[in-house]
Amino acid sequence: MTGSTMARAGKRAMIIGTAAAAAAVGALAVSAQASSWSSYLSNAGNDFESRRWTDNGGSTTIKFTSCSRGSSPKAVSVMLRKDTFGPDPKYTNASFTNCFNSGATSSGTWDGHGSGDYYFVVDYGSNVYAPVSVKSLTVYY
Questions:
Q1: What is the reported pLDDT for 24?
Q2: Are 109 and 140 in contact (CB under 8 A)?
């Protein structure tokens, strides 16, 4: 091999090695990132259930922005539930009030609930008969 052929081969090996290392780091970074989904609510009544999502464990944060309700109370309760065979476990009920202020956000975070399929329930078992609307909601898990 000539000197220039060896230099090109060395550069090629370095580029391939760097690309492989970058791909490995990228794969690790993707798996460590949390997932999320966004939506809205329109006239959701008592015991409304959100869509389900699969969580690998860790914490879950739910954010509501710009809430409205035709009458009192100016609060909405949000309960995280795990979708299981049999009665679904209930996690702490969060009361969202700040989102009723113009353009403001309310949020709740639930930790240590393990992996599985989850959903949230609005005004679970309450006697609030005024449906709630939420302009923007995001679930981070």
A1: 40
A2: no
Per-residue pLDDT at 101? 97
How far apart CA 54 and CA 63 sit, in angstroms, is 18
Q: Which amino acid is at 68?
A: S
Closest CA to 99 of 138, 60, 53: 138
Sequence-ordered alpha helix ranges (H) in 50-109: none
Prior bond of 131 cis (ω within 30°) = no
- How many other C-beta atoms lie within 10 A of the C-beta of residue 3? 7
Distance in angstroms (rounded) separating the CA atoms of residues 47 and 69: 15
Where does the pLDDT of residue 2 fall: very low under 50, low under 70, confident under 90, or very high at 90 and above?
low
Q: Which residue has the tokens 């989850």?
A: 118
For 1-141, list the strands marked E by DSSP: 36-44, 48-49, 53-55, 60-69, 76-83, 90-96, 105-110, 116-122, 132-140
pLDDT at 3: 54
